[in-house]
Specification:
single chain; mainly alpha; DNA polymerase, domain 1; hpI Integrase, Chain A; 2 domains; 3-stranded antiparallel beta sheet; 14 helices; 3 strands
């Protein structure tokens, strides 16, 4: 957006500043703040220089029609754009929740990408740096989200109860997850070398370790391990849940460990688990195969 001193430009800058402030005050995650700010900025570019008090439902509808037809925006990106504009209207301008209605595109129910036990082992083995190995192992071993991992504090590791506390996870809820004896040994080795002061995993400045750095670390390790799948840190979380399910862990327990509000969210792992699938015979295998194959 051009840096102008017009009344409209000042109004647009105010809108962006207020959006950022409200997202921060309401303690939205860093990744959500970035997504909302980007989506709302794109909308402002589209309607500029229309005075914001003249921008209404028709502008919003036409904008999303433009996104779909001209920019071929994905369903998830369209929903993010709607959510960002809706947040501005409701939390910055104080409009009623029904201020505008947009048809939400149905989210494609894609099955999560899951690694095998051997693939996880190869990735962890290919991670030479001790801190990087501790980070990736913690995500896989506990099933926590990347934002929850970067927020972990040293005291959240409970070696006596053999659990790790997740403070103010998604939905602003505290929970705990399992602490593997193998992970505890690795974390103790890591702690002796790096001596983190506040956060369990700290960057060079003593602040939370960067989420983008973790993604890069995992990508390098996957390449080094010869894994050609497109994976992200959340893939390790999906793999944690799937491997627990395949090992006979009750779905309710997995739901608690993951911090899911509904069992329906956790049930998706029953669709990616291959253990029970391997035990099912195809009807073809039940027929008399003599003279057929």
């Amino acid at each position: 957006m051009k840096s102008l001193v017009s009344a409209e430009a000042k109004q647009y800058r105010w809108a962006m500043d207020q959006l950022r402030m409200q997202l921060l005050v309401k303690r939205y995650s860093e990744s959500t703040r970035q997504v909302y700010c980007h989506a709302f900025r794109e909308f402002l570019k589209y309607v500029y220089p229309t005075p914001l008090h003249h921008v209404g439902t028709q502008h919003i509808l036409k904008y999303h029609q433009y996104l779909i037809e001209n920019r071929k925006l994905s369903r998830s990106s369209q929903n993010q754009s709607i959510n960002a504009i809706k947040f501005y209207l409701e939390h910055v301008l104080g409009q009623d929740r029904q201020f505008f209605k947009l048809e939400r595109p149905k989210k494609i129910q894609k099955l999560p990408q899951v690694l095998s036990l051997e693939e996880v082992r190869l990735i962890l083995k290919a991670t030479g740096n001790l801190k990087h190995k501790a980070i990736l192992t913690t995500i896989y071993s506990t099933g926590i989200r990347i934002g929850e991992l970067t927020s972990l504090r040293v005291e959240d590791v409970d070696p006596h109860g053999m659990r790790i506390w997740v403070r103010e996870g998604k939905g602003v809820k505290d929970r705990f997850t399992v602490l593997s004896p193998l992970l505890l040994t690795l974390l103790r080795e890591y702690y002796k070398k790096y001596r983190p002061m506040i956060y369990l995993f700290e960057g060079p400045d003593g602040q939370q370790y960067s989420s983008s750095s973790i993604r890069k670390v995992l990508k390098r390790s996957a390449v080094a391990a010869g894994i050609r799948k497109t994976i992200v840190p959340h893939t390790l979380r999906h793999s944690f849940a799937t491997h627990l399910l395949e090992n006979g862990t009750n779905l309710r327990y997995i739901q608690t460990l993951l911090g899911h509000t509904s069992t329906k969210t956790t049930e998706i792992y029953t669709h990616v688990s291959t253990k029970k699938l391997d035990e099912i015979l195809s009807p073809l295998d039940l027929m008399d195969q003599e003279g057929y194959i």
